């Protein structure tokens, strides 16, 4: 019995060593993230929870939708079908930078992930110092200045201003498209040292989506939390998610299956 117990303990230790982020593991499910759902005020949130070190920003350059890739994650920043004349690249309208380089190439002249559409909310994971930064920024040079090194990722969008009573003024200033329309919506939120990728396939206003997210994180307007904030990402038909639940069932939120420019992915 003692020998059998020792073998079991040794195997347990070995599994703990070889399975990264095992706290996310479900029964036969993923090990680097957790998928869950949450409903509030008739809005259903689909949530991927992971750690910031598992996040990588990628470009699809309108070549595919998320469903037709092998990536786990959600759609990213706002984009258009226009081509940037100086680079020949399709335009993405938000910052998407990995370790000092925009998602499309290294040429910083075009709309390739180096720029927001004006001054907009940007979530930065400072990997060197192990902390999140939330800044309203215009471009990658400002990100580099805020961080002071290249060991980071940065994703831009429109500030959600979680806990703020003036959030409507902010989304107007940062030009959130169609805030009062009932469409599918996408967000990225950090809390403590966790990152949450959130998509709703409930057609709702920005206010209803934000309210459901605030309820999920236990936040009320007028009572912000210093370690919780988020951004609206592209919505409507762009709102897409691909993940596996704890029973290893594929979750596919397709939006209108349109091809995407930029995505936020979770490494296995």
TrEMBL record:
Q: Which domain of life is it from?
A: Bacteria
User: Does the UniProt entry include the keyword Signal?
Assistant: yes
Cleavable signal peptide: 1-25
Q: Keywords for this entry?
A: Signal
Q: Does the keyword Signal apply?
A: yes
Annotated Phosphodiester glycosidase domain ranges read 69-265
What InterPro entries has UniProt attached to this entry? Answer: NAGPA
One matching Pfam family, short form?
NAGPA
Protein name (record): Phosphodiester glycosidase domain-containing protein
Q: Which organism is it from?
A: Paenibacillus elgii
Taxonomy-wise, where does this protein's organism fall, top ranks first?
Bacteria, Bacillati, Bacillota, Bacilli, Bacillales
